[in-house]
Amino acid sequence: MATTIDREKECPFLLRIFTRVGGHHANHEYTIDSVPATDELQLYTWMNATLEELAQLIQEVVPDAQHPDARVAFRLIYLDSQRATYRSRDIGRVVNAKPNNDQQKTLDDCRFFIGDYLDVAIYIGPPKHISRRGSDWGPRDGPGGGPMRNRLGGGRFSRDRGSFRRDDKPFGRRDRF
Question: Which segments show compositional bias classed as Basic and acidic residues (predicted)?
Answer without folding.
Answer: 157-177
